[in-house]
Write a structure and sequence with these properties.
single chain, alpha/beta, Rossmann fold, five-stranded parallel beta sheet, 14 helices, 19 strands, about 35% helix, binds cytidine-5'-monophosphate
């Protein structure tokens, strides 16, 4: 159920005996990799405690619309915006009636009105209540109002808590989770583990000084986000940059090339695609002074030694991931990029011409040429780095799938 990985599912629980199954529902959604938050009606809390659902979801449970403290934390509008999908299970006859009338008289119904996310509704009630023409009318009304945006899950037939038999039981948690998963598309990199390096490295000279470069990290962060949006499990290993850590991925902050290498090597047991966008310092001071260097003489020499090549190290592993390098060139772009492709034993290299000041480093735009194999080549014209990242991830996914 790769589709649920990293998805934000808001679970709305209304009052009914089936609410006891919500615990299992949260557990199954979490197991599939979803982030789950819970909203309960007052009567739902008569059947299952918020504490149980808080422990299982790992988030505080939301139940009050008029609680200033809760609203100050994550209010109804934030919750509505947070959700990638709003699942309401169980949906009682009373809740369905309130939803169909557009009422916003508690937190759950208000979030329902406020959200743009797709909705899944899993009704649960006595068979006679389900058959009742007014319930059926309410369901028809909701379907007509929300069209494809609303998926009805169940109800299932069988024996009911009250002893009746018929249509009205809430579908089993496994069925609900499978139907919820089907609301999401499978991404091009669903379930694939991707590691991205980004930004510059800082090589310390003494406690206050260092050697670094102009890399902003923008391209790497955009690549990591595009991979995540394609369904990948992303680890972003970033040198010091001014960018915020992106959500829904592991972000490891490092300083020096040696730190970055160590962080990358830790991913070797699971990394399937390694994308090196970092501008790793080629050299570091041979020794780092313990104390600040004083101005005692007119001249100061620094001895620099080569840093290890992180990308080559990853590509030389016994079972190497699919490796993608970046090459900033100022002349003969294809010649130098292809040379790196073979020398570093890479699957693919993305080259840009940094002699052109409108692209690269601090710019929001980039134009690149991508090379792979004997004669594979694709040129991407100047475009926003975010758009370019999506196109590059599509190409990387295509070539990765061809090899696996
Ligand atoms: O050899 P050059 O530095 O031009 O290679 C650039 C590519 O190699 C980039 O993908 C960069 O992230 C990676 N690299 C690395 N470790 C280094 C130097 C470069 O991973 N020490």
């Amino acid at each position: 159920m790769q589709q649920l990985y990293n998805r934000r599912i808001l679970l709305g629980i209304s009052g009914g005996i089936a609410a006891y199954k919500s615990a299992e529902l949260v557990r199954t959604l979490k197991k599939a990799g979803a982030d789950v938050r819970v909203v309960m009606t007052r009567s739902a809390m008569e059947f299952i405690t918020p504490l149980t659902l808080q422990a299982l979801s790992g988030h505080p449970v939301h139940h009050s619309l008029l609680d200033p403290e809760a609203e100050a934390g994550m209010g109804h509008i934030e919750l509505a915006k947070w959700a990638d999908l709003f699942l309401i299970a169980p949906a009682s006859a009373n809740l369905i009636a309130r939803l169909s009338q557009g009422m916003g008289d508690d937190l759950l119904t208000t979030v329902f009105l406020a959200t743009d996310a797709p909705i899944c509704l899993a009704p649960a009630m006595n068979q006679a209540m389900w058959r009742d023409p007014i319930t059926q009318e309410n369901i028809a009304h909701l379907k007509a109002a929300h069209g494809d945006h609303l998926t009805l899950i169940g109800p299932a037939a069988g024996e009911q808590a009250c002893g009746d038999t018929g249509l009205g039981r809430m579908s089993e948690p496994d069925t609900i989770v499978a139907d919820v998963a089907n609301c999401f598309e499978t991404g091009l990199l669903a379930g694939v583990s991707v590691v991205v390096t980004a930004g510059p490295t800082k090589e310390a000279i003494d406690p206050v000084r260092y050697i670094t470069n102009h890399s902003s990290g923008k391209m790497g962060y955009a690549i990591a986000e595009a991979a995540r949006d394609a369904g990948a499990r992303v680890t972003l290993i970033s040198g010091p940059v001014a960018l915020q850590a992106p959500e829904r991925m592991e972000c490891v902050r490092v300083r020096s090339a040696l730190d970055m290498l160590a962080a990358c090597e830790k991913t070797q047991d699971h990394c399937q695609i390694f994308i090196a966008t970092a501008a790793v310092a080629d050299y570091r001071p041979a020794s780092q002074q313990e104390h600040k260097i004083k101005k005692h003489s007119d001249e100061l020499s620094l001895t620099l030694i080569r840093n290890p090549d992180i990308l080559s190290t990853m590509a030389a592993a016994e079972q190497p991931p699919f490796t993608v390098g970046f090459a900033a060139e100022t002349q003969d772009v294809e010649h130098y990029a292809r040379d790196k492709l073979t020398r570093k034993k890479l699957n693919m290299i993305v080259a840009n011409d940094v002699s052109d000041r409108s692209i690269g480093f601090h710019s929001d735009d980039n134009a690149v040429k991508v090379f792979w194999g004997e004669d594979g080549r694709r040129d991407f014209e100047l475009m926003n780095k975010r758009r370019l990242a999506v196109r590059l991830i599509e190409l990387i996914a295509e070539k990765y799938q061809e090899e696996h």
